[in-house]
Amino acid sequence: MATSGHIDTFARDNLPPRELWPEFAFMLPDLQYPERLNCVTEWVDRWVATGQGARPCLISPSETLTYARLHERVNRIANVLTRDLGLVPGNRVLLRAPNNPTMVAAYFAVIKAGGVVVATMPLLRAKELSYPLAKAKIALALCDARLSDEMERAKAQSPDLQRIVYWGPGEKGGELEALMAKPGYESFTACETASDDVCLIAFTSGTTGEPKGTMHFHRDMLAICDSYAKHVLRAEPSDVFTGSPPLAFTFGLGGLVLFPLRIGASTVLLEQAGPDQLLDAIQRYRITVPFTAPTAYRAMLGKLKDFDVSSLRKCVSAGEALPRATFEAWHKATGIKILDGIGATEMLHIFIGSPEHEVRAGSTGRAVPGYEACILDDAGNIAKPGTVGRLAVRGPTGCRYLADERQRKYVQGGWNVTGDTYLMDEDGYFWYQARSDDMIVSAGYNIAGPEVESALLAHPAVAECGVVGAPDEDRGMIVKAYVVLRPGFAPEAALTRLLQDHVKASIAPYKYPRAIEYVAELPKTQTGKLQRFELRRRASEGSARKLAS
């Protein structure tokens, strides 16, 4: 490791032992970075230094920042952090805001000043905020004033948190702007950090238990741009990005900020980005590259006729497996092949995905240039093509948990083992089966819930669905589907039989859902991921009540 630029060594001190790290590979010339690196200079400073500061950068309904104006805002916040708030390199700073230009500026300012960003979802409650505050020993937070209520409650529960500075409208707002306005704050020299200094601690969503803090270096932030974005996405400086994921979600950070700014493009930041708002933004701002989840693409399909989406060039999907039915319907409606991909907070962004000319419908794609991926069998050996097993990956980014014993589970034999079950074919394409804990074993058959979901989604009555295993006395487990219907369809026995027959005709008959429950909505995370663990809980409780009766 290079000599750290951090004075506060908490982050480096709490990295896992080196023997528990995955193997790192920097196979592309693009991924060779200098020992001394502050990554913010690559996204902001260099465009100003090369005379391109007038290019549009961050666009929102309330304001537009050029690269030069973003550069100044970043510098002003960095000066506030170091001169007024006492930040020293290595300090962690919690950020809390919806997707807006000041959130991006604050994010970059913390890193430029040598700090470590801990960004949080806007909808988190005080109890959820108090966990990263304690785990990362955070003394300072910058927060949008509209979110002050839960932030103040979290402060009351967090002895480490000494100071909150608010920006924007609201009773507590305006302090950050007042400090930023001081004369002489428009310039700031980036802290001379090491390329392997931690600059981001991204906490997982906690869908499989207590959230884990994933630690990422300055070089990691550039690596996702110079691997996936450069070799798979292949966007251009003229592109206009947007999307639905929060910036606290690394899928959103990469797709909405790091990727466009790496190439001098612009991005539209939306505080509310449901399917209707996304379609409106695509039409209004002539969006060319949206990032969102499969459920959003499916929801937008029925509304495309009401919007002009002719500006679209590339569409990226991640967060959940992209059902083949959604891929094909979107392609038919727009002529665009959705770029599916799988990433992980541990890996920072997408590590499997293919460019348009290599896309195969139903497949996630091949390993992103710079990464290698394989399937491991139960013994931890690399399996032959055509084998269903555990997905493993390694490359320029990888899992380093903040002081967490679960590091031993995620990293095995130098590989990052993601918790996904996949099949790799002879051509190196990866085909998603399920999350490892989403495999349903029914009467001795292994059934992947997402495969059943894809079959159901191909029926015109089904708007959304989630498939899990439900305990069953005779079969051990049965396949149970929770279905949200489209308007005009009634939840009745005849429709249930129709859907079951449809699945039997689409995939192996033994995989059909023996139970179907109609619901108004499915449980999801803030990032739009289906919470199958919640459906499993409901299925288990339902079975228990049935047995008790």
Which helices and strands occur, and which strands form pairs?
Layout lengths: L9 H4 L26 H10 L6 E4 L4 E3 H18 L7 E5 L4 H12 L3 E5 L5 H10 L4 E5 L3 H9 L6 E5 L7 H6 L17 E6 L9 E5 H16 L6 E4 L6 H13 L3 E3 L6 H11 L3 E4 L1 H8 L14 E2 L6 H11 L4 E2 L1 E2 L6 E3 L19 E5 L11 E7 L12 H4 E2 L2 E10 L5 E6 L3 E4 L2 E4 H9 L4 E11 L3 E10 L7 H14 L8 E4 L13 H17 L1
Helix pairs in contact: 2-3, 3-4, 5-6, 8-9, 11-12
Characteristics:
549 residues; alpha/beta; GMP Synthetase, Chain A, domain 3; 7-stranded mixed beta sheet; 16 helices; 25 strands; 31% helix; globular
Q: From the coordinates shown, what is the CATH architecture of the domain at 38-192?
A: 3-Layer(aba) Sandwich
Described by the principal axes of the CA atoms, the overall outline is globular
Structure class: alpha/beta
What's the overall average pLDDT, rounded? 93
Alpha plus pi helix count: 16
Question: Which consecutive residue ranges, at least 5 long each, have pLDDT under 50?
Answer: none
What would you report as the Rg, rounded to the nearest angstrom?
23 Å
Reported for the largest beta sheet, the result is: 7 strands, mixed
Q: How many β-strands, per DSSP?
A: 25
**Assembly of the depicted chains:** single chain
Helix content: 25-40%
Cross-sheet strand order for the largest sheet: 2-1-10-9-11-12-13
Question: Which CATH class of the domain at 38-192 is shown?
Answer: Alpha Beta
State the CATH topology of the domain at 38-192: Rossmann fold
- What percent strand? 15-25%
First-to-last CA distance: 62 Å
